[in-house]
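Feature request disguised as a bug report, sorry. It would help if multi-protein outputs had a clear separator. Right now it looks like this:
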Amino acid sequence: MEFLSMDEQVKTENSQLIDVSLLNPAVPEDEKRIKEAFEDRNWNEIKSADSWVVFKVMAEFVEGFDKLAKIGPCVSLFGSARTPADNPHYKTAEDIAAKLVRHGYGVITGGGPGIMEAGNKGAFQQGGKSVGLNIKLPFEQHSNIYIDPDKNINFDFFFVRKVMFVKYSQGFIVMPGGFGTLDELFEALTLIQTKKIGRFPIVLVGSSYWTGLLDWIKGTMLTEGNINPEDLKLISVVDTPDEAVKVIDNFYSKYLLKPNF
């Protein structure tokens, strides 16, 4: 087998091959998981292991439903865990959460640091409902101190956590963030587009941050026919806390708030 140098294997616009293992080598724990995916298991091993996973998933759903069933109208606030407290986005998220509480909403975040902490802080300091849906991760994630003790829930499974975000939220405000934030944004968009939940408002905060993504959606995704023009109307883009909360208020000025499903 002929081995290529890093320079030969890293892609340029005209090259045909990327050696992903060189760009993102697996750590030992990853290698173990990858090898396990190819191992043959007998039926007893499969049934035993998968049965425990089912029970853990059920337990997380039960805890989430039990703690959130009566929280009332809330808005989910998404954003990066890496945003420091001296970043303007942190202050914007804190102000948005405070205004939401003053307008009668509770605030749901991912329960961690950064934008999530800012959201919980704004809600907590205004005496509003401050919900944290925390996820166990190897880095970054830990519960912030501004979550109501009876509304701080820890999850192992991302998909259970995302169900709680959409089931008990009457709107979604999305601050600048990374892959996790985009995952949450497109989860909400997909569920609304496919009519699995109602047409709840989705507000992107920070036009300079989101313009590139929106341009690609309009110029590529829409042009290729992979979405409809009407789908673009699911998203509002704002730059200030007042504008963000106004979108939520305007939407619900004519609706009765209730859990989504």
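(second protein starts here, but nothing in the output says so)
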Amino acid sequence: MARGVATYLAWLSRRWVAGSQRLDPQAERLMDYLYGARSAQQRVAEERIRQVSRGLLEHYSRHQAFWSLVHEGDEDVVDIQASGSMSVSSRRIEVVSIGEHLDQSTVKGSGEVMLIRDVVMSALGCGIAYGLGHDAAIASVLLNDWQRVRLFLCSPLTTVPVARTTVSGPEEIHKLEPLEPAGRFPQMEEPSAALTQLLLASLRKARA
């Protein structure tokens, strides 16, 4: 898994250095550390990438932290410790809540920008994919420079949403319903499909 997290961080940092990926300020600070002042020796960059990868895995290996990220969408702070090497230092990554993330993603022009929550989720997702044996498939996708790869962590698929339209008099009513006619959407504390989770998070944000 650590190799998968490191692979994604290395891929993203190279894209950032090349100017082909815009980042929000927090993600940019992280990439700046990984690649130094864009003139760091390759050995230093690799050491820092391994350090951050281990730190992310150590933090999100904790049950509460992982499911808070995946299910609840809470904000979090990841403290990454230095390893004693002169090339690395301790880092602090502030992962915004899903509500703040949604606010940031609706700003004009944000579609081209990768946000810090995207970075953390994608790095962990890549690590999980590598751990499940999909390293060759992920690596082949990352080879395509024209692709912007983001991975979204979600619970095991249980309910697939589908949009349905019904006619009531002169009006059309649009509803999001389970694909299975006899199914029901899960409660907030239950595992759910990615789209259902995103919908519920958006609704919760709207009620706040």
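Even a blank line would do. Unrelated, but nice: DSSP finds eight helices and six strands in the chain.
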